[in-house]
Write a structure and sequence with these properties.
Mean pLDDT: 96
Helix content: 40-55%
Largest sheet: 7 strands, parallel
Structural class: alpha/beta
Distance between the termini: 41 Å
Low-confidence stretches: none
Shape: globular
Strand content: 5-15%
Number of strands: 7
Number of helices: 10
């Protein structure tokens, strides 16, 4: 379903979810805009510019309002809204057609346009940063980063950019075939404030790949894994304490500046990560 549309149709539900995670101790929450491009919204006949702008602006406003509310309650712990920029449901590097490996379902220019329009809505809604996330195709990410730079130049504004890739199996490669080091080299020109990995494997299996990023990246490093691997029913079984235990080595070994959760992680997981992983350890230097 079109979860992003809930920011427009059920803002009360989305606000409640944001506030649950902030109450659990989250410093940064994402906007409900993972599929907020006209490319992804075309599946629901909502690809018109006005619709896409509304979805992104509404999503940003809800997340930002929740952050402002919790920051006011405790100014010593400021909260930030990250504009979630997902990978779209098209890939620029891989053909969707087995019969025609040269075929692409979209073009670089189309993807740039889609991300640029998404940025307009997110900034209008007040996001503090952009999070280009769950990158399985680095060429899509490069299109996003190009769109962001164009947006910054055109509008005369500049906010931090976080970049997060995802690996597809224990080879440690993205779907388009890059290792962690190659992924970093491919996006480092954009000088992101932070780079990381999300989704993919459970925390335990991601350790060596986060360590690879920490060795080569000259910016902050973060990680927000799933609550383990999906079970036969597509659910996630890692308990909050279990996930915190698996994430502990990231912080104890000085690999990361931020830790969080992706698929299957509820507010109780974030609470455990904040108390057991983030609080007792110093961030990566």
């Amino acid at each position: 379903g079109n979860n992003d549309l809930l920011s427009v149709t059920r803002p009360d539900v989305v606000t409640d979810i944001h506030e649950q995670y902030l109450a659990a101790g989250a410093d940064i929450i994402e906007t409900n805009t993972f599929s907020g491009t006209f490319i992804a919204q075309a599946d629901y006949a909502l690809q018109a510019y006005d619709e896409v702008f509304r979805i992104n602006k509404s999503g940003a406003e809800l997340a930002k309002a929740a952050c402002v509310k919790f920051t006011a309650q405790n100014p010593n712990k400021p909260r930030f809204a990250a504009g979630a920029i997902g990978p779209t449901n098209r890939t620029l590097s891989v053909s969707p057609s087995v019969e025609n490996p040269a075929y692409r379902a979209t073009t670089f220019d189309e993807v740039v346009k889609a991300y640029y329009e998404q940025c307009e809505g997110l900034v209008a809604g007040g996001v503090d940063m952009f999070l280009v996330e769950t990158i399985f195709d680095t060429l899509n990410a490069k299109a996003a980063l190009f769109a962001l730079e164009k947006f910054f130049t055109d509008k005369g504004v500049k906010i931090p950019v976080f970049v997060s890739g995802t690996i597809v199996d224990n080879s440690g490669r993205t779907l388009s075939g890059q290792t962690n080091e190659a992924f970093w080299i491919s996006v480092s020109h954009a000088k992101p404030m932070a780079i990381g990995l999300n989704c993919a494997l459970g925390a335990k299996d991601m350790y060596k790949y986060v360590a690879n990023l920490a060795k080569c990246a000259d910016c902050y490093v973060f990680c927000y894994p799933n609550a383990g691997l999906p079970n036969a029913m597509g659910g996630y079984d890692d308990t909050p304490n279990g996930m915190a235990g698996d994430c502990m080595p990231f912080a104890a070994d000085g690999l990361i500046n931020g830790i969080g959760g992706c698929c299957g992680t509820g507010p109780e997981h974030i609470k455990a990560l904040a108390e057991q992983v983030a609080a007792p350890h110093k961030p990566r230097e």
